[in-house]
Input
Amino acid sequence: MLHIADMDHNKPILSFCTTCRDGQEVVQRGIRGGTRLARAFLSYSESSQKPGFEMRGVQCMSQCKRSCIVSLSSSAGFSYIFGDLNPAEPSHIEALNEGPFRAKLNAAS
Ligand code: FES
Output
């Protein structure tokens, strides 16, 4: 498990709400949508370029109506929250590593 003390605080932090529900928990053996989203992103990022940010799991960002939720933050920049992410949708996983998201990442760092 990654602890905040172990993190590089100069890098932006991508936080996954691991408790978000996507309505598929019954058919996904009780594994929350947010946890599946984080796992899918980890799997994707291991097979693609190095993400350039720290990752962590958190429990609820008070955006439950827009689950699944991810936030991007840094100590010296803006914070962004992204919602309505589907862990089963490859384009949503890819979007967290590309295009406009990368622009936000650059703004946050
Ligand atoms: S459970 Fe994910 S934002 Fe509340």
Remarks:
- The two ends are 24 Å apart (CA to CA).
